[in-house]
């Protein structure tokens, strides 16, 4: 690079190139030489001062910066266009950077390297402390909320059915519990008391729609229409009032229904479920599920 170019000029030109890249997203998929030519054509005539246009004073800088942008590709594997390209451009032009984006692979280049901050001291708390704190905040008082109710209902069922059943619920799981023999159980839950004021108990409606398939192990999609679980446990919290607490197992009722006994509907009401199965308390849930398993296996 021409040593006559001052650091100020270098930084100003770098900033102009960053702005150019941010406003010309179509160059992102262009080959390196096309990106370099675009930079040269644009800055060689539009960004140079009038007294330097055509004099070639900017060419060494363009050659230096353009080569570095082109070789590195200025692609960043980030969801934010500004954060990705901006961070890369700052890195290539010698600005300080937090480490986002792809590091340029240029022989002999020492400026613009990415530095990572190191933690010199161990944190004063760990994962167990965070879990304890979150648990205290979320579950340290009477619970009436849709956000956590599903986890609470499944946890109560897990405590009742383990170790014969394994709690396998996850974001893409096709069912919530499974046994070693391959039987699968789906949990559906509802509550009369909501976290917002309804003026009266909410009507319990459960989703039982057939699916087009399910995820096996959370990674493999199995295209098979129907309901993948063999059993359904409908959990209903029917307490309405100031004493309602979704954490209390004694306030829940459970209805165990074989999948084959469900009607061909997408949603089913609690009143219709009561025509198929009787409500049982938590203490009798394991026995009721075992009876349903025997009925299915016959």
Total number of domains: 2
Taking the sheet with the most strands, its summary is:
5 strands, mixed
Distance between the termini: 84 Å
Number of strands: 9
Roughly what is the average pLDDT, rounded to an integer?
Answer: 75
* Backbone CA Rg: 31 Å
SSE succession? HHHHHHEEEEEEEEEHH
**What ranges have pLDDT less than 50 throughout 5 or more consecutive residues?**
32-36, 45-58, 68-104
Order of the strands making up the biggest sheet? 1-2-3-7-8
How would you describe the shape?
globular
Tally the helices: 8
Content-based structural category: alpha+beta
Name the beta content range: 5-15%
Fraction in helix: 25-40%
What does this structure look like?
- The chain folds into two domains: 7-92; 143-297, no CATH class.
- It is built from eight helices and nine strands.
- It has 298 residues and is an alpha+beta fold.
- It has a five-stranded mixed β-sheet with strand order 1-2-3-7-8.
- Mean pLDDT is 75; it is low at 32-36, 45-58 and 68-104.
- The termini are far apart.
Supply database-style keywords.
298 residues; alpha+beta; five-stranded mixed beta sheet; two-stranded antiparallel sheet
Annotate the secondary structure layout:
Elements: H1 7-23, H2 32-46, H3 59-72, H4 81-92, H5 127-139, H6 146-161, E1 166-167, E2 177-178, E3 184-191, E4 205-207, E5 214-216, E6 220-222, E7 231-237, E8 252-258, E9 267-269, H7 270-273, H8 285-297
Parallel strand pairs: 3-7
Antiparallel strand pairs: 1-2, 2-3, 4-9, 5-6, 7-8
Helix pairs in contact: 1-4, 2-3
């Amino acid at each position: 690079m021409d040593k006559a170019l001052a650091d100020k000029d270098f930084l100003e030109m770098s900033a102009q190139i960053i702005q150019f890249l941010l406003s010309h997203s179509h160059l992102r998929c262009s080959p390196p030489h096309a990106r370099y030519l675009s930079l040269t054509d644009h800055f060689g005539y539009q960004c140079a001062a009038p007294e330097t246009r055509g004099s070639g004073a900017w060419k060494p800088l363009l050659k230096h910066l353009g080569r570095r942008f082109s070789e590195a590709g200025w692609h960043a594997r980030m969801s934010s266009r500004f954060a990705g390209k901006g961070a890369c451009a700052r890195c290539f032009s010698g600005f300080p950077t937090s480490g986002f984006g792809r590091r340029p692979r240029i022989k002999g280049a020492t400026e613009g390297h990415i530095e990572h901050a190191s933690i010199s001291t161990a944190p004063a708390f760990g994962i167990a402390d965070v879990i304890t704190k979150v648990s205290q905040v979320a579950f340290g008082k009477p619970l009436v909320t849709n956000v956590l109710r599903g986890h609470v209902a499944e946890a109560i069922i897990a405590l009742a059915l383990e170790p014969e059943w394994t709690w396998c619920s996850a974001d893409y799981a096709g069912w919530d519990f499974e046994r070693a023999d391959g039987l699968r159980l789906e949990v559906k839950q509802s509550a009369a008391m909501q976290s917002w004021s309804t003026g009266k108990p909410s009507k319990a409606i459960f989703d039982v729609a057939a699916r087009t398939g399910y995820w096996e192990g959370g990674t493999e999609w199995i295209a098979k229409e129907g309901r993948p679980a063999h059993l359904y446990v409908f959990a209903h919290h029917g307490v309405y009032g100031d004493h309602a607490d979704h954490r209390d197992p004694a306030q829940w009722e459970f209805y165990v229904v074989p999948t084959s006994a469900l009607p061909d509907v997408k949603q089913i009401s609690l009143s219709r479920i009561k025509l198929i199965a009787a409500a049982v308390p938590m203490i009798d849930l394991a026995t009721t599920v075992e009876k349903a398993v025997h009925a299915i296996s016959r």
